[in-house]
Design goal:
This protein has 330 residues and is an alpha/beta fold. The protein contains 13 helices and ten strands. Helix 1 (7-17) crosses helix 8 (182-193) and helix 2 packs across helix 7 (151-167). The protein is globular, with a radius of gyration of 18 Å. The termini are far apart.
Length: 330
């Protein structure tokens, strides 16, 4: 079992990745706070390199490899955003990258991963894609990069939390979409290491999952990292078949709660972001906004609230669906 990361682990990871990525903006979004009386902001990771937060963890993981490991090449499994991130980071390091993606993966994300230089293998559903990635790891002597449950990945994602902590000096709430849990683990772990989960500058962290893929919610209910028999949601980036073991420990120890949203609520959030904030978000990226729109997160009047918009890699058909079917709000 991996040990929890130290404050210096998170600080070192940030120093490692910061020169190569964007420090994404924290934009106010007053529309979202009209009913609750809060002061909402959007952490725009949809504007990050490769279009999502995933590059933070992938870049730190690959930068942490030794020369011999980089020479072997890396392999990962992903619904799309981590695939693009690993492809970009591996190309930057001069390493071969193989990404195994479910057969139903977004063709937009497949094409992007290939454009960044990865060899893409389409295989089965999410669980079968994991199995195929492990098979190829052994058969081709590649280095397996876990998409969300490796210490180096979690440490890289902690850089998001450290940026938010600098931009929000006082108390507040951070709402984070959750798939396997790597990002929320990094954000919560980095804030805990920086002393921001206690005291006068206390931040409260909440996770959000789709109703059709509640792996972390089930993990909290069962008291262990849970595996799902099946997932069904438009938010492909939030639908791995399991919660990460390391991620679960961070969520159980440092996260206030994990709440659920429906696909219809996610579509409404995508529509709101596009029409009022002028931001393109994929379904996974809109989940935190959906939770705030629907009152799932307990916030207080006057409180600063940060919704992490995790990615913007959405194909035209899904964006059109959100604009067509998303319920206007408020």
């Amino acid at each position: 079992m991996n040990a929890l990361l130290t404050a210096e682990d998170f600080a070192s990871a940030r120093r490692r990745v910061a020169p190569a990525i964007h420090r994404t903006p924290l934009l106010s979004f007053r529309t979202l706070g009209r009913e609750s009386g809060t002061r909402p902001h959007l952490k725009c990771e949809n504007l990050q390199k490769t279009g999502s937060f995933k590059v933070r963890g992938a870049l730190n993981a690959i930068a942490s490899l030794g020369p011999a490991e980089r020479a072997r090449g890396v392999i990962t499994v992903s619904a799309g955003n981590h695939a693009q991130a690993v492809a970009w980071a591996a190309g930057r390091a001069g390493a071969r990258a193989v990404v195994v993606m479910p057969e139903r993966a977004s063709r937009t994300k497949v094409a992007a991963a290939e454009a960044y230089g990865a060899q893409v293998v389409l295989h089965g559903d999410a669980s079968e894609a994991f199995a195929e990635a492990h098979r190829r790891t052994a058969a081709e002597d590649l280095v397996f990069l876990h998409p969300f449950d490796a210490p180096e990945v979690v440490a890289g994602h902690g850089s998001t939390g450290l940026e938010i902590a600098e931009d929000v000096p006082g108390p507040g709430v951070i709402v984070v979409p959750v798939g396997g849990g790597g990002q929320i683990a990094g954000i919560a772990g980095a804030l805990a290491g920086a002393g921001r989960l206690a005291g006068g500058s206390r931040m409260r962290v909440f996770g959000v999952e789709p109703v059709g893929a509640p792996s972390m919610r089930r993990s909290l209910d069962e008291g262990r990292a849970a595996r799902l028999d099946r997932t069904e949601t438009i938010a492909d980036g939030l639908a791995p078949p399991m919660a990460g073991e390391l991620a679960y420990r961070y969520v159980a120890g440092h996260v206030e709660d994990v709440v659920l949203v429906s696909d219809d609520e996610i579509l409404a959030a995508m529509r709101l972001l596009a029409t009022r904030a002028k931001l393109v978000a994929e379904p996974s990226g809109a989940a935190a906004v959906a939770a705030l729109m629907c009152g799932r997160v307990p916030v207080r009047a006057g409180e600063t609230v940060v919704a992490v918009v995790t990615g913007g890699n959405v194909d035209g058909g899904m964006m059109a669906r959100a604009l067509r079917e998303g319920t206007p709000w408020p």
